[in-house]
From TrEMBL, chain A:
<comment type="function">
    <text>The proteasome is a multicatalytic proteinase complex which is characterized by its ability to cleave peptides with Arg, Phe, Tyr, Leu, and Glu adjacent to the leaving group at neutral or slightly basic pH.</text>
</comment>
<dbReference type="InterPro" id="IPR050115">
    <property type="entry name" value="Proteasome_alpha"/>
</dbReference>
<protein>
    <recommendedName>
        <fullName>Proteasome subunit alpha type</fullName>
    </recommendedName>
</protein>
<dbReference type="InterPro" id="IPR023332">
    <property type="entry name" value="Proteasome_alpha-type"/>
</dbReference>
<keyword id="KW-0647">Proteasome</keyword>
<comment type="subunit">
    <text>The 20S proteasome core is composed of 28 subunits that are arranged in four stacked rings, resulting in a barrel-shaped structure. The two end rings are each formed by seven alpha subunits, and the two central rings are each formed by seven beta subunits.</text>
</comment>
<dbReference type="GO" id="GO:0006511">
    <property type="term" value="P:ubiquitin-dependent protein catabolic process"/>
</dbReference>
<keyword id="KW-0539">Nucleus</keyword>
<dbReference type="GO" id="GO:0005634">
    <property type="term" value="C:nucleus"/>
</dbReference>
TrEMBL record, chain B:
<dbReference type="InterPro" id="IPR001353">
    <property type="entry name" value="Proteasome_sua/b"/>
</dbReference>
<dbReference type="InterPro" id="IPR050115">
    <property type="entry name" value="Proteasome_alpha"/>
</dbReference>
<comment type="subunit">
    <text>Component of the proteasome complex.</text>
</comment>
<dbReference type="Pfam" id="PF00227">
    <property type="entry name" value="Proteasome"/>
</dbReference>
<dbReference type="GO" id="GO:0005737">
    <property type="term" value="C:cytoplasm"/>
</dbReference>
<protein>
    <recommendedName>
        <fullName>Proteasome subunit beta</fullName>
    </recommendedName>
</protein>
<dbReference type="GO" id="GO:0010498">
    <property type="term" value="P:proteasomal protein catabolic process"/>
</dbReference>
<comment type="subunit">
    <text>Component of the 20S core complex of the 26S proteasome. The 26S proteasome is composed of a core protease (CP), known as the 20S proteasome, capped at one or both ends by the 19S regulatory particle (RP/PA700). The 20S proteasome core is composed of 28 subunits that are arranged in four stacked rings, resulting in a barrel-shaped structure. The two end rings are each formed by seven alpha subunits, and the two central rings are each formed by seven beta subunits. The catalytic chamber with the active sites is on the inside of the barrel.</text>
</comment>
<keyword id="KW-0539">Nucleus</keyword>
Length: 203, 204
């Protein structure tokens, strides 16, 4: 096993890309992030672990804007996240410049996933150690979207999903309790999902 | 023959630009908006080569937006003006943009400001400025009637005086103008001054 995880470009005999799987491990260690889609709203929530006393917690941004109509939350290596988010922000503006239209949620998700995939098929690099939840409304549309990407570069749309620490428990909770909601009800669902794995009072 | 001018008033900055898109002796359209809203509190009034004008100002606009997403706060007017000048300067000795710009903005801390940026990357912070053949007339009118701390009504009156002067004294005077204003409430269109409307299309 150990022989097949040194370089990312090498498959193992049973078809694994170990570096990608190890990246998913890094994601599993990151803070929990949950996304829930409603009929007229889409909600992102992240767990905020208790921070060091001397740290200015306001400088730690876990949900970011990629454009006026798109937001992103992620779990995993935050330093990798900064790089990916920067590239996505540039792409959002570049798209606006070349086609005079804002990106759709699917377009920017495909771009980020494509970027993550590139780093699973190049020499001398490692994959990005993060999974992202991307939410927004397509331009000129009132239909909300929620997408998820992971270090392998796959992406798909979800009604509700979670990533990071305890994401399996959160996803189980969402599968049991999800129904089409709107407005405040969707927000409450997202909060209740996070409360499954976080302690009250540590927000 | 493009006319762009503007000045700073009491808590606001106003810019006016003609709205003709001209190619040699043909007027393509007479309702071309040459004052771009750069962000919520900035206006770029640009004149010059029309391809360069659109290309360059859109490029600046997207980079200003990117800065805001990266840093969580908007650029100041001064920073945006210096960035714009820098881009013109970098391109100058390779592939120059033939665009003259009046950048008007409002910052909470410093109030309204106006920057004169010409196509060879001159940058001046000014109270009043103008580009084009119209500048011979508008600058003279502004020199005569401008004083600091004008109200919006006084300012629009002066803008109208300048437009009147351009219309009556410039041989190929553009017929229509657009006026935009920026103050603490943001950048917005104030009015159009049209003396020639596009002919209505006759129904078949």
């Amino acid at each position: 096993m150990a022989r097949y995880d040194r370089a990312i470009t090498v498959f193992s005999p049973d078809g694994h890309l170990f570096q990608v799987e190890y990246a998913l491990e890094a994601v599993r260690k990151g803070n929990a992030a949950v996304g829930v889609r409603g009929t007229d709203i889409v909600v992102l929530g992240v767990e905020k672990k208790s921070t060091a006393k001397l740290q200015d917690s306001r400088s730690v941004k876990k949900i970011v804007n990629l454009d006026n109509h798109i937001a992103l939350a992620c779990a995993g290596l935050k330093a990798d996240a900064r790089v990916l988010i920067n590239r996505a922000r540039i792409e959002c503006q570049s798209h606006r410049l070349t086609v005079e239209d804002p990106v759709t949620v699917e377009y920017i998700t495909r771009y980020i996933a494509g970027l993550q995939q590139k780093y699973t098929q190049s020499g001398g690099v490692r994959p990005f150690g993060l999974s992202t939840l991307i939410v927004g409304f397509d331009p000129y549309s009132s239909v909300p979207s929620l997408y998820q990407t992971d270090p392998s570069g796959t992406f798909s749309a979800w009604k509700a999903n979670a990533t990071g620490r305890n994401s399996n428990s959160i996803r189980e909770f969402l599968e049991k309790n999800y129904k089409e909601t709107s407005g405040q009800e969707t927000i409450k669902l997202a909060i209740r999902a996070l409360l499954e794995v976080s302690f009250i009072g540590y927000f | 023959m493009e006319c762009v001018f503007g000045f700073v008033g009491n808590g606001f900055a106003v810019v006016a630009a003609d709205t003709s898109a001209v190619h040699s002796i043909l007027v393509h359209k007479s309702n071309e908006d040459k004052i771009m809203v750069l962000d919520s509190h900035k206006l770029i009034a640009a004149s010059g080569e029309s391809g360069d004008r659109v290309q360059f100002t859109e490029y600046i606009q997207k980079n200003v937006a990117l800065y805001q997403f990266r840093n969580g706060i908007p650029l100041t007017t001064a920073a945006a003006a210096n960035f714009t000048r820098g881009e013109l300067a970098t391109a100058l000795r390779k592939n120059p943009y033939f665009v003259n710009i009046l950048l008007a903005g409002y910052d909470k801390e410093t109030g309204p400001s106006l920057y004169y940026i010409d196509y060879i990357a001159t940058l001046h912070k000014v109270d009043k400025g103008a580009f084009g053949y119209g500048s011979y007339f508008s600058l003279s009118m502004m020199d005569r009637h401008y004083h600091s701390g004008m109200t919006v009504e006084e300012a629009i009156d002066l803008v109208d005086k300048c437009i009147m002067e351009i219309r009556s004294r410039l041989v190929v005077a553009p017929p229509n103008f657009v006026i935009k204003i920026v103050d603490k409430d943001g950048a917005r269109e104030y009015a159009w001054r049209e003396s020639v409307k596009d002919a209505a299309v006759a129904s078949a």
